[in-house]
């Protein structure tokens, strides 16, 4: 690993640990465990705190994926399903990209369906984003440092789809995957099918591209597509910059055959960032 990659990995770990330290205590009874590489660091800290008596001995952890379930089961902390404990105190999860309102793209690991179910059942959802690049300038600007140095990056940090260019993950039932793909291609950047229901837009286009770029996610080390923990497929839909994530999420979710969309609009209340320089930043909404 290069030294720059090591620094980023270190800051990602620090951000994950700080998020746990700040949000998990003896009052937390039910904790949602996100998925991905960053969450491994967060869960490592949770296990330490459990061993040190800093969290409840009878803490219940709700997994958001097969990966999270395995982590919990190996830890000795009680693992339970969401339908047993539908009221979660705090969930901590990773993120692929986060904008200045803490809207996020998630699902780089195809886990966003269960992640969103657990996040929405949580009194508080916290995102830890290891990949700070889209946000660096904004945060530095906020604390009034390096304002000039990072001015060029600020514009880019405003919109989802700027740094995470793999597209928005859309989980679809296999039966309708081609139909959904065609429907996404027909979404127009200027459309607001919800205006008749009173869903307002800011008058700007919904996303950048005239026509989205959509492809089915292919598996690695297996021929064929990625199959999710729910037995479904993933379409990665690249819209370019996303100007209105709330509306795009609604538009995608109304397509029959879509199970869940990796846009988390207005879900996270707090985000922790591991910065490129090894420091950690936090933002609340
Ligand atoms: O499906 C995967 C999840 O949404 C992850 O939380 C997200 O992709 C971030 O993953 P990582 O922590 O590996 O960057």
Characterization of the model:
It is an enzyme of class 5 (isomerase). It catalyses: aldehydo-D-ribose 5-phosphate = D-ribulose 5-phosphate. This is Ribose-5-phosphate isomerase. With 285 residues, this protein is α/β, with parallel strands linked by helices. It folds into 2 domains: 3-134 and 266-277, Rossmann fold; 168-263, ACT domain (Alpha-Beta Plaits, 2-Layer Sandwich), CATH 3.30.70.260. It is 30% helix and 21% strand. The protein contains 8 helices and 14 strands. It has helices at 3-23, 38-51, 66-75, 112-120, 136-142, 151-156, 177-185, 245-253; strands at residues 30-33, 60-63, 78-79, 88-94, 97-98, 104-105, 122-129, 168-172, 213-216, 233-238, 258-261, 263-264, 270-274, 280-284. The protein has a 7-stranded mixed sheet. A 4-stranded antiparallel sheet has the order 9-10-8-11. Helix 1 packs across helix 2 (38-51) and helix 2 packs parallel to helix 3 (66-75). It starts with a helix and ends with a strand. It binds ribose-5-phosphate. Ribose-5-phosphate binds next to strand 4 and helix 4.
């Amino acid at each position: 690993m290069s030294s720059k990659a090591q620094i980023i990995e270190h800051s990602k770990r620090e951000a994950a640990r700080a998020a746990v330290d700040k949000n998990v205590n003896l009052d937390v009874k039910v904790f949602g465990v996100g998925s991905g590489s960053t969450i491994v660091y967060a869960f490592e800290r949770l296990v330490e705190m459990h061993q040190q008596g800093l969290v409840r001995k009878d803490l219940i952890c709700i997994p958001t994926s097969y990966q999270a379930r395995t982590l919990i089961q190996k830890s000795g902390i009680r693992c339970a399903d969401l339908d047993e404990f539908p009221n979660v105190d705090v969930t901590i999860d990773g993120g692929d990209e986060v904008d200045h309102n803490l809207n996020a793209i998630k699902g780089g690991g195809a886990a966003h369906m269960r992640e969103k179910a657990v996040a929405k059942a949580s009194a508080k959802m916290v995102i830890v984003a290891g990949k700070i690049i889209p946000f660096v300038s904004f945060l530095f600007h906020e604390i009034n440092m390096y304002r000039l140095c990072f001015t060029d990056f600020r514009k880019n940090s405003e919109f989802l789809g700027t740094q995470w260019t793999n597209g928005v993950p859309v989980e679809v039932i296999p039966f309708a995957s081609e139909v959904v793909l065609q429907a996404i291609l027909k979404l127009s950047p200027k459309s607001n099918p919800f205006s008749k229901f009173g869903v307002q837009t800011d008058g700007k286009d919904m996303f950048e591209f005239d026509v989205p770029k959509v492809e089915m996610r292919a598996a690695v080390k297996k021929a064929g597509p990625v199959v999710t923990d729910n037995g479904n497929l993933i379409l990665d839909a690249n819209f370019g910059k996303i100007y209105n994530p709330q509306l795009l999420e609604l538009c995608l979710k109304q397509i029959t055959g879509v199970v869940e969309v990796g846009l988390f609009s207005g879900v996270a209340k707090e985000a922790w960032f591991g910065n490129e320089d090894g420091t950690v930043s936090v933002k609340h909404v």
